[in-house]
Design a protein that fits this description.
CATH topology: Rossmann fold
Radius of gyration: 18 Å
Largest sheet: 6 strands, mixed
Shape: globular
CATH architecture: 3-Layer(aba) Sandwich
Bound molecules: adenosine-5'-triphosphate, magnesium ion
Number of domains: 1
Number of strands: 10
Structural class: alpha/beta
Helix content: 25-40%
CATH superfamily: P-loop containing nucleotide triphosphate hydrolases
Number of helices: 7
Strand order of the largest sheet: 6-7-8-3-9-10
């Protein structure tokens, strides 16, 4: 696996009133193409900030994010949004499904924003969305609304939506939060397939230890840093070092 994503000295400082929060304190990280990375660590350790900085959503205060050697934070706004749309599929807590759109339209929506929304393009996108939803065993629900779906089904729609632009990287922040263990395992299994079958580089943030069985790489964060020298990150998490 070759180097694909690299961060150098990544810092993020938030200012809230006269308070200064150092969410990232200098993160140096490499992620290879095709990796399946899980970020773990206690609440407030900087996981969401880090992945949204890598995803081109949160501008770092200092440091660089290189993707295939390109410094994404040197791009202008339209180049950056183009890059995000092409390269990255997001499954973020805050990016929930739109309640007024049915499943099919929720999945095609980011792609329609991305295209010229000509009728021909829209039809092709809809066929692609149906094919993705079929792969995810959601074909019978294409006309349902989010409120008519179970939590696991909603996650599968979010997965289809993240894949619609055929991005190389999937960033998922707590994709299995609030799911029961069985549904969580199903969603994790789908994510493994996204990594193995669709060959996407998968970056997941989660508090759930169930991911550890499947991830190729585990990265532990604490107080705005990543632990570099944990001989056994899984054991460290189990021992409560990081939670
Ligand atoms: N938009 C923001 N404005 C101000 N402070 C923020 C903002 N986002 C995050 N923070 C602060 O930055 C720190 C890191 O937050 P972050 O959301 O990255 O943590 P996290 O590891 O994802 O936590 P959790 O596991 O609870 O989701 C926290 O102290 C948080 O309060
Ligand atoms: Mg978070």
């Amino acid at each position: 696996m070759s180097e694909f994503i690299r961060t150098n000295g990544l810092k993020k400082i938030y200012h809230v009133g006269d308070q200064r929060v150092e969410a990232l304190k200098g993160v140096d990280l490499e992620i290879a193409q095709g990796d399946f990375v899980v970020f773990m660590g206690h609440s407030g350790s900087g996981k969401t900030t880090l992945v949204s900085t890598i995803g081109g959503l949160t501008r770092p205060t200092e440091g660089t994010v290189l993707i295939e050697g390109k410094n994404i934070w040197k791009l202008n706004d339209s180049q950056l949004s183009n890059f995000r749309n092409r390269k990255i599929g997001f499954m973020f807590q805050s990016f929930s499904l739109l309640p007024t759109l049915n499943v099919l339209n929720n999945v095609v929506m980011p792609a329609i924003f991305n295209s010229n929304s000509r009728k021909k393009d829209t039809d092709a996108l809809k066929s692609k969305a149906i094919s993705l939803l079929t792969d995810l065993d959601m074909k019978s629900k294409v006309n349902s609304f989010p409120s008519e779906l179970s939590g696991g089904e909603q996650r599968r729609v979010a997965i289809a939506r993240a894949l619609i632009n055929d991005p190389e990287i999937i960033l998922a922040d707590e994709p299995t939060g609030e799911l029961d263990i069985r549904t969580e395992k199903e969603v994790i299994e789908i994510c493994c397939q996204i990594n193995n079958v669709y060959k996407k580089t998968l970056i997941v943030v989660s508090h759930s230890l169930t991911w550890l069985e499947k991830a190729k790489t585990t990265i532990v964060m604490k107080d705005g840093f990543i632990y570099k020298d944990l001989a056994d990150p899984v054991q460290a998490i189990m021992n409560g070092v990081c939670k």
